[in-house]
Write a structure and sequence with these properties.
Blueprint (H helix, E strand, L loop, with lengths): L12 H5 L6 H5 L2 E5 L3 E7 L13 H17 L7 E12 L7 E11 L3 E10 L4 E13 L5
Antiparallel strand pairs: 1-2, 2-4, 3-6, 4-5, 5-6
């Protein structure tokens, strides 16, 4: 069985990572690490930027990683000259605490439609233990004219 990639041709990790400076992605240290046939993976450090005062990875940081992966992946599936994919709903279940190292996530498409997309994001620690599972729904909307 041949799988056709939903991502636009020519997308590269270098181009994707070049969008991060000056954004939350840069502030949290998120880096895209793999662009698969139908998935996008990235990592985020567990450090002073992403931990809560109790020394554990902040749940909001996990959600930021999940939404970043799903949102970037969703926008790789559409014509960005005419449309943009924006977050509509996200949920997350935090399964295990992380206190150091990195967490790694992979966003995989569940549904890619003309007006909505649904992405499954799985996050794990450096030992491969699941820390968070998330589902992100994206709305695909026309770009507004500048002005």
């Amino acid at each position: 069985m041949t799988t056709t990639s939903p991502f636009r041709p020519g997308a590269t990790l270098d181009a994707i990572n070049a969008q991060g400076p000056g954004t939350l992605i840069e502030h949290l240290g998120i880096r895209m690490t793999d662009l698969g046939t139908d998935s996008l993976s990235g990592s985020m450090p567990v450090d002073h930027r992403t931990r809560q005062p109790y020394g554990l990875l902040h749940g909001g940081a996990s959600v930021a990683l999940a939404e970043t992966l799903g949102s970037v992946a969703a926008n790789l599936c559409i014509d960005n000259a005419t449309h943009i994919a924006v977050g509509l709903e996200i949920n997350a279940n935090h399964l295990r605490a992380a206190t150091h190292g990195h967490v790694h996530g992979t966003a995989t498409a569940v549904h890619i439609g003309r007006s909505t997309q649904v992405w499954d994001i799985r996050i794990h620690d450096d030992q491969g233990r699941p820390t968070c599972v998330s589902r992100l729904t994206m709305a695909v909307v026309p770009r507004r004219a500048a002005g």
